[in-house]
Write a structure and sequence with these properties.
The complex is a heterodimer of chains A (359) and B (184).
Chain A (H helix, E strand, L loop, with lengths): L3 H7 L4 H20 L3 E2 L19 E5 L5 E5 L5 H10 L4 E8 L12 E9 L4 H19 L19 E4 L2 E4 L5 E4 H9 L3 H5 L1 H10 L10 H13 L9 E7 L14 E9 L2 E8 L4 H18 L8 H8 L6 E6 H8 L13 H4 L2
Parallel strand pairs in A: 1-4, 8-9
Antiparallel strand pairs in A: 2-3, 4-5, 5-12, 6-7, 9-10, 10-11, 11-12
Chain B lengths: L10 E4 L2 E11 L7 E8 L5 E7 L10 E11 L2 E5 L6 E5 L15 E7 L2 E6 L3 E9 L12 E6 L4 E5 L7 E5 L5 E4 L1
Antiparallel strand pairs in B: 1-2, 2-3, 3-4, 5-6, 5-8, 6-7, 8-9, 10-11, 10-13, 11-12, 13-14
The chains are: A alpha+beta (359), B mainly beta (184).
């Protein structure tokens, strides 16, 4: 099978699709710099990565010339590093960096090594981030089509004009405001499940079973909840433009602050065209609660047989200094690029997709 | 089988209907165990379903017989194949090939899936090695950037090939994309 670099040599028309990555990344930088955010770099070699129990990590070893050795990991997200800087007083920051996830199936939506954008607005909360995201998407759309090397690149303030994006044969409107629907409303509207049932383990399992989902003694509330989201709710979201699905049950938002209704947390995800584009929280700033959740996660990792590693104690020390009120989000840049390149497989936008490197 | 063993090409029973898995991707929601996001095609009706399974749940598989057959000849919309071991002959509707029958050549072998005696699918070779029967000498490519020209292969199909490909040469064609791959 021909590899991408060979295809590009044979068919130079293909380059146009691959340059969209560069345009999207240039646009992201221009947008956040214009908003006054600092861009920061984060390490790709860590003594302790973040603790999500279900994500498998890449483990390696750092050695020095004296024969000293340290276990080291590639990050699954830049989150902890950025929160240390926020606690130290950086103000609003963003990073465009690589992150890594191991042990996952090959997929058209995900590469084991991926490019992630995270931005944190302070002071701010999740709905401030939603407005940033609305502006960012329209800015990329305008920027991408502006003449290259022009001195008149659009700034964030001149965003009149196009709001329509064509993706996989459908038109999407990126104009503000995007559709917003809470998780509770979505369960009621698309799945016919009321909030009390959704949050009650036994009731939701019973309801799930009635709907034809497989439920046995090992099935968890999370599994049925996720399965209803995947089969009944997600297909209804982001059909005409992006949809913001917000206020997740507390159990589904380990790093978020509680919402006004304390059964929910201030988290949202953005969906469009069958893609999940971003995951946002009003960030948890309480170090004691954060430490407790990290320890629970690490215990669960052990139980699940995932690679074990210590807790990032620097992260907790940083939070003790006082993390300001912050809204933060992780956006998969590869998916954004696929969206603006109008392709359903992110591998079509990567010069070196994993399937060509390791087969 | 468990849903975590699902993959493209497996036949399963979904809502009591025999279905071929045409796409299967695993993912982890931020918090939660793995799920298999699948697209399935009903082998009787052609209807397509999308469904996300928990990776631990049990999925019933369908007994599908797989037989290697050899192509003989075309008769209208019916293609005649033979089992080279038993010499049994089979009439296969052209629609099974989803357009790839244009690459069929006598004696070509491939695997077919049968369900309750009826053919429901074929594993068509990903690449075919074919002779170029017609190629212009001219170097008049379509653009300067992508110098290619149409050539005709022995099955009568036109393929875009690099300018250096000549009549009588043997080339390899990708049957998924219909694109020239290389000289054989």
């Amino acid at each position: 099978m021909q590899k991408t670099f060979q295809k590009l040599k044979q068919d130079p028309d293909l380059w146009a699709r691959y340059w969209i990555r560069e345009q999207v990344i240039d646009a992201i930088r221009a947008y956040f710099k214009d908003l006054g955010f600092h861009e920061v770099e984060v390490p790709l070699l860590l003594p302790a990565p973040s603790t999500e129990p279900f994500l498998e990590v890449f483990k390696t070893e750092l050695k020095d010339d004296q024969g000293n050795k340290w276990q080291a990991f590639l990050p699954s997200s830049p989150e902890f590093a950025l929160k240390k800087l926020l606690s130290a007083g950086s103000g609003s920051v963003f990073t465009i960096t690589k992150s890594f996830r191991n042990g996952e199936g090959r997929s058209s939506r995900h590469n084991p090594e991926f490019t992630i954008l995270e931005w944190y607005r302070t002071p701010g909360d999740y709905m401030d981030i939603a407005r940033d995201f609305e502006g960012l998407m329209r800015f990329i759309l305008t920027f991408k089509d502006s003449p290259r090397r022009s001195n008149n690149l659009p700034t964030r303030r001149v965003l009149e004009g196009r709001t329509h994006l064509k993706y996989q044969g459908k038109e999407y409107d990126l104009g503000s405001p995007w559709e917003r629907i809470s998780v509770a409303e979505a369960f009621q509207k698309y799945s016919g499940i009321d909030t009390e049932t959704m949050l009650n383990e036994q009731w939701l399992m019973a309801k799930g079973k009635k709907k034809g989902y497989q439920v046995d003694e090992s099935t968890t509330w999370e599994e049925i909840w996720d399965q209803i989201i995947a089969n009944e709710i997600e297909p209804k979201l982001g059909q005409k433009g992006p949809t913001i699905l917000y206020d997740y049950p507390i159990a589904q938002a380990a790093l978020a602050k509680k919402a006004r209704d304390p059964r929910f947390a201030e988290r949202f995800e953005v969906f469009m065209g069958g893609l999940e584009l971003g995951n946002c929280f009003s960030e948890l700033t309480n170090w004691k609660e954060q430490k407790r959740r990290c320890l629970v996660d690490l215990a669960e990792r052990k139980h699940l047989g995932r690679t074990e590693f210590p807790m990032d104690t620097d992260f907790i020390e940083a939070l003790k200094m006082g993390m300001p009120e912050t809204g933060g989000i992780a956006v998969g840049v590869d998916r954004l690029v696929a969206l603006f390149a109008d392709t359903s497989d992110i591998a079509n936008t990567l010069f070196f997709p994993v399937s060509e490197l390791f087969n | 089988m468990r849903a975590n063993q699902l993959k493209t090409g497996v036949f399963v029973l979904y809502k009591d209907q025999p279905c071929a898995v045409v796409k299967c991707e695993f993912y982890f929601p931020g918090k939660g165990s793995a799920f298999a996001r699948t697209r399935m095609k009903n082998v009787k009706t052609g209807n397509v379903y999308e469904y996300t399974f928990k990776s631990a749940e049990m999925v019933e598989t369908v007994d599908v017989e797989t037989v290697e057959l050899q192509y003989l000849y075309k008769d209208g919309e019916t293609l005649n194949f033979m089992n080279p071991r038993t010499f049994d002959q089979f009439e296969i509707p052209a629609s099974i090939f989803e357009g790839k029958d244009k690459y069929l050549m006598p004696e070509m072998k491939m695997f077919f899936n049968f369900y309750e005696g009826e053919v429901i699918g074929v594993r068509f070779p990903l690449k075919v090695t074919v002779k170029v029967t017609e190629a212009s000498e001219a170097s008049a490519g379509n653009t300067v950037n992508a110098p290619k020209k149409p050539v005709t292969i022995e099955t009568g199909v036109e393929v875009m090939a690099p300018l250096f490909v000549k009549q009588g040469e043997i080339i390899i064609v990708d049957t998924e994309t219909g694109e020239y791959v290389s000289r054989a």
